[in-house]
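Methods, example record. To illustrate the input and output format used throughout this study, we show the complete record for Rho GTPase-activating protein 26. The sequence lines were provided to the predictor; the line carrying structure tokens was produced by it.
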Amino acid sequence: MGLPALEFSDCCLDSPQFRERLKSHEAELEKTNKFIKELIKDGKSLIAALKNLSSAKRKFADSLNDFKFRCIGDAETDDEICIAKSLQEFAAVLRNLEDERMRMIENASEVLITPLEKFRKEQIGAAKEAKKKYDKETEKYCGVLEKHLNLSSKKKESQLQEADSQVDLVRQHFYEVSLEYVFKVQEVQERKMFEFVEPLLAFLQGLFTFYHHGYELAKDFSDFKTELTISIQNTRNRFEGTRSEVESLMKKMKENPHEHKNISPYTMEGYLYVQEKRHFGTSWVKHYCTYQSDSKRITMVPFDQKSGGKGGEDEAIILKSCTRRKTDSIEKRFCFDVEAVDRPGVITMQALSEEDRRLWMEAMDGREPVYNSNKDNQSEGTAQLDNMGFSIVKKCIHAVETRGINEQGLYRIVGVNSRVQKLLSILMDPKTAETEDDICAEWEIKTITSALKTYLRMLPGPLMMYQFQRSFIKAAKLENQESRLSEIHSLVHRLPEKNRHMLHLLMNHLANVAKNHKQNLMTVANLGVVFGPTLMRPQEETVAAIMDIKFQNIVVEILIENHEKVFNIVPDTQQSNSQLLLSRKRSTDSKPPSCSERPLTLFHTVQTNEKQENRNSIINSSLESVISSNINSFLRSNSTPQSNMNSSDPDLEVFKPNRPNSLAPTAPSEAYEDAPTSNQPSVESGDIDNPQNPSPTSPLSPSWPMFSAPSSPMPTSSTSSDSSPISSPLRKARALYACKAEHDSELSFTAGTIFDNVHPSQEPGWLEGTLNGKTGLIPENYVEFL
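The corresponding predicted structure is encoded as:
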């Protein structure tokens, strides 16, 4: 029940009931006073806690903002950039939220604490002061009344009247004080209904404003959250694919580490113990040594693997001679002596094993090291980009699009290997291929998709070709989306016609698969993860190459999303061939061509026999005139702009066999082989009797050491016409400058080096020659012909 009302008329009577009612009001005021006091204390504790929370969150946000992701590789994908940026975005959101919290905390003191303290002091405090006054007047009135009633009636009438008037005055004053007190008590009871609750409401409103601000922040953050979620999923998918590749490479390295050594710019490198003479005797200090056969430079870096720190300054010497140390001449094993041109005395070194010493000895004697040639992981089947190959791919695509376009995990879920191999054997059987137009319904979709991917991996080389691998990766690393698309567009049209047509066929199909991603769950990103390593494979299997798989996936994503533009529109040629020649000449005059800016070149070793040697002898007399006439006609046509890089003079068309997978060195008289371009059809085994093909004895026969016209204009040589490499295919040449090889297909040399058997290479701006028995590529503007 509520409090009873205090009637002003009861103040005059001052009855016991009135006093009881008044006491109940006083007790309620005391209770309210204590509650407000505790509430103020709790409110201050809450504000202090909110300040500590805000400070902790700001510190957390600062930690997020200060951390920077560093990814493996020289570039980041858009997904990795988004993830790296996420920490700064999180920090910005938290800071924004804490700014609003601080505004709420600052307002909390004004809207909650101050009004409550004011109400407690001014209203409840005034009621307490009125009570004190009321109690004092009550005591005074009761004392005067008792004294007045004890007066003797024998007193004079004037004294009695004076006493009566005095009592009336005290009674009247008591009555007024009683009325004021009752009024104040009831006023406070009524005021607390709004002056006490209103600050609480204002505080809650501040809380609601804070939470609404958080809600608005969440809405604004929603787009980035969605983008980040997709980036995280894409990165996780790429990680799963990359991890298996890295783990596979690690296992191969464990099983046979010598066959998977990285191609190094040094002839030999590794740890050696070098004997150093001290005042107390000799000691063996561990060094990491590198040796370059061209400059005969040995660099020794003292390094302790246990501590991970260098033990002194680097030292470089020029090799004069190297002699194996006999076992009986020194107590240590695997030793050899080195003499330097620029340092007196003999340096004794200890290798890690007998095999290690043999390799160091061979390298320092000028013999080339054994590099690990590229080995394609995939089986070397009979898969080719011929009519049968296109038929197999079209059959697989037709089966997928008609029967399984909506199957979940399409192309990600693999089929049973034995079933896949059986299906491939049926599809690749010429008899079956002629009789059956479609794949039977008995084959599961996952078996068909796995067969399609396996067939693409069985090709002699990746569909997007080894020599364009680095160019595609560089294009995917460009920051601007339009630049990526433009560069990839241009690269696609540099592919041979068959490769481009097959890629077009695949991209159209994958675009159809991506359109049904709501059913099959295969988005463009997921398809990129599946087909990136299938369509683009690096020549050399390294961790760095595996880290670039994510960029291979991006290339495939771009091709799927823009397949209509990429394949149906020929990229614009903004420069004529003559302008290209001029710009290339200026570039080569000012800066030597970088070995890392061109694709690796594949060489093929042809088996030597008596018949082959006879043909090689015939070509020496006829090749010069044939090549000269073809190249001269090609150079005369350079002044005419070409709209398509694959178009060329019909006189320049030669027939070449398909490029094999091996990277074995080639002899000077051996054929240079490359994948066929759009105007250079490959010679199939069944086309030998075709009258349109050259006869085996013709100079244009594939068995002859011919080179085809390049698909892009060849830079003009800086030498005179008399010393042009084109007019004399096999000649000696002298190096004008030093050059350091960046790939095993190139030669490293110093100024003044003499090359044998120098002849044109199919790489624009490069020649092919022999140095110390090794054949490789030489920058054209680095040499002059003798």
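Annotations derived from this record:
The CA atoms of residues 161 and 779 lie 139 Å apart.
The radius of gyration is 46 Å.
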